[in-house]
Amino acid sequence: MANTFEFDPIELPPECKELRKEVRAFLKEEMEAGTFSPSGRRGDNAALFAKKVGAKGWIGMTWPKEYGGHGRTQLERYVVTEEMLAHRAPTRHYSTADRQSGPVLLRYGQEEVKKNIVPRICSGELCFCIGLSEPNSGSDVFAASTRATKTDGGWLVNGRKIWTSNAHQADYMIGLLRTSNKTPENHRHGLTQFLIDMKSKGITIRPIINLTGAHDFNEVIFDDVFVPDLHMIGEVDMAWKQASAELAYERSGPDRWLETLQSLVELVRVVGPEPSERQAEGIGREVAHLATMRRMSLSVAGMLQAGKTPAAEASIVKDLGTNFEQALPNKVRLMAPVRGDSAPDSNDDRFEQALNYTTLIAPKLTIQGGTREILRGIIARGLGLR
Amino acid sequence: MADSIITDTATKIFQDLCEADTVNKAEKGEWPKALWDALEESGLPLTWVSDEFGGAGAELADGFAVLRVAGRFAAPVPLAETLLAGWLLAEAKIAAPAGPMTIAPVHEDGDIRVDVSGKLAGRARHVPFARDAEHIAVVATRDGEKVVGLVAAKGLAISPGVGLSGEPRDTVSFDGATAIAVAPAAELDPARLTLIAAAARTQQMAGALERILEQSVQYSLDRVQFGRPIAKFQAVQQNLANLAGEVAAAGAAADGAAEALAAHGIANDITAAEVAIAKLRVGDAAGAGAAIAHQVHGAMGFTYEHTLHHSTRRLWGWREEFGNETLWAERLGRMVAAAGADALWPFVTRGS
């Protein structure tokens, strides 16, 4: 069928059910041990948690064993990821590397680097950040101007990256740097991916506090930072060719529709077993949209496992998913019963905490990892409109 | 997964025999004989009846896939209804007759009774294609016992009505008629019939949504304004991308209901939840999707001459049938609330 997208139905194999039980048991144990609390903001004990997850074999699950991976399927990885997110486990120390940086290194990195770095991602030791956005290069990612200039044995980097999540905690960045000018034929030409050691001389990291009051993203300034030839990833000037597969992985995962789920969970808790008609209808509608999102997202995971590159389908999942999760806190707010003087103190009120937190993070959900407008452009291209 | 030979067969028949003119004439009351005869020849209407009872004996998934195709072509025939009637009869081990059939009642409060001699009583509203059907499969009670009955349509008092889709939605009085056959069906009642019929409608709706996406994309590429195809304008592209998302979601949700029915049967909690999810999600997609398709088509899409309304009117009609979005949302919400907050995530991931 022309112009319709395919979402092959998928049934999770039995090993996934076992794995899901194992992950839930692990998370329960860690919550009881106080490693993290699902009602708190994510990020507590993130480095410690990463090591524990690594020891379980749940980082780099799909990667080859010779690099410390575990040779498991995309679907098994999917199960682990969605359980972590649904329980609000503090995954941020390893999640970027697990989702994006590791696969890029494995596919395009040089052998020596793969051998050194990837096993340390799998153990939960290394934290990665992504150096894409710049002050004048946001959605227009191929406008990046932070430059890498050839020097003896490597490259000298000068410029500025911005909105870089976790830069202040990351061991490495995979950065998109300008190595040549654009050509009149190809405006995407001239960019190269590099692995950058965040402890290199010449790197300055400045925090940017977001509106929730949290320090997540940063400005990263490069002043004659040396990057060895060994750390060049893929072909010089040709990074644009390497991008599309990466985006399919990035854009369809459960992290694109589960970020505000806790608001709905806590609503169900305060509403209790006998909701009003209005509440029942509202909760039912959100659950139906959620369940359908998951089905589509899982389907993309299945297609990735089958070796396809469902770029437009992944964009559809992210567009629907982020719109869903963004709208959810406001819908929850309007369904909620009045929380008067009989409710617990604000700081102990899980509902109020969840609603406040998800309301505050909602605006970023349709911006990070490709804005809604960019995604719809990709979908439009898939429809043959451009 | 459905057998592609079956869907290919269906697609070929509809391509050849279900043109715009066929749909318009059917709305004016002309029975699309060539189309129905070809369908019957292929065995598709009795997909859900085993060979033993005179059918094709194919999987539930095959029938649902055929309905997706029928929805895409706005097929103005009781294919879904005949499939469902066949399924009802098969559940009660009653042999299925040839010819177009329909089902009754289509509302959950339906109350058709049959006595020991097979005499019927009761009235059913909004029965699809009753005037075109040769037989009606009814879910009824016989002295409190749940039964399925096969009734000849000829001789029934049928008062014609028309749905939003332009298809017949008739009121049927069964008073005084005698069933051809009656047999017990302990698992069936109007609510369970609603469940599987809702699943059937979601497939037709998913097909109709695929069609309006295709038409809208094509129209946007053909229609030139301000010196270029309107497809080149970002505002139009964003709308169509949105439509594509709704279409994809509808297809996925409809598949969920079909799979649950095939895997767990009609008398099952997972099936009930999946059908609720599907009818609600597809209904939401129908509303949002039809609105975008019309916006893209401009005034042209609001004419009778254009075929867009073949699909959009069906979407508006079908989303109301066998439970609208509100009904299923409320039921689903009650299931979720009863299970409690900590069961919500396990509910979403159930069965996997």
Highlighted features:
heterodimer; A: alpha+beta; Butyryl-CoA Dehydrogenase, subunit A, domain 3; 4-stranded mixed sheet; 11 helices; 8 strands; B: 352 residues; alpha+beta; Butyryl-CoA Dehydrogenase, subunit A, domain 2; 3-stranded antiparallel sheet
Descriptive overview:
The complex is a heterodimer of chains A (386) and B (352). Chain A has 386 residues and is of the alpha+beta class. Chain A folds into 3 domains: 14-126, Butyryl-Coa Dehydrogenase, subunit A, domain 1 (Orthogonal Bundle); 129-238, Butyryl-CoA Dehydrogenase, subunit A, domain 2, CATH 2.40.110.10; 252-382, Butyryl-CoA Dehydrogenase, subunit A, domain 3 (Up-down Bundle), CATH 1.20.140.10. Chain A has 11 helices and 8 strands. A 4-stranded mixed beta sheet of chain A has the order 1-4-5-8, covered by helices on one side. In chain A, α7 packs parallel to α9. The model of chain A has no long low-confidence stretch (mean pLDDT 93). Chain B is an alpha+beta fold and 352 residues long. Chain B folds into 2 domains: 4-184, Beta Barrel (Butyryl-CoA Dehydrogenase, subunit A, domain 2); 190-348, Butyryl-CoA Dehydrogenase, subunit A, domain 3 (Up-down Bundle), CATH 1.20.140. Helix content of chain B is 52%, strand content 13%. Chain B has 11 helices and 11 strands. Chain B has a 4-stranded mixed beta sheet with strand order 1-5-6-9, covered by helices on one side. Chain B has a 3-stranded antiparallel beta sheet with strand order 4-8-7, with no helix packed on it. In chain B, β5 (135-142) and β6 (145-152) form a beta hairpin. At the A-B interface, α1, α3, α7, α8 and α9 of A face α6, α7, α8, α10 and α11 of B.
CATH-assigned fold name of the largest domain in chain B: Butyryl-CoA Dehydrogenase, subunit A, domain 2
State which percent range the strand residues of chain A make up.
15-25%
Widest β-sheet, arrangement of strands of chain B: 1-5-6-9
Mean pLDDT of chain B, to the nearest integer, reads 96
The CATH class of the largest domain in chain B is: Mainly Beta
What's the average pLDDT of chain A? Answer: 93
Structural category of chain A: alpha+beta
Largest interface: A-B, 62 and 54 residues
Spatial extent as radius of gyration of chain A: 21 Å
Total strands of chain B: the figure is 11
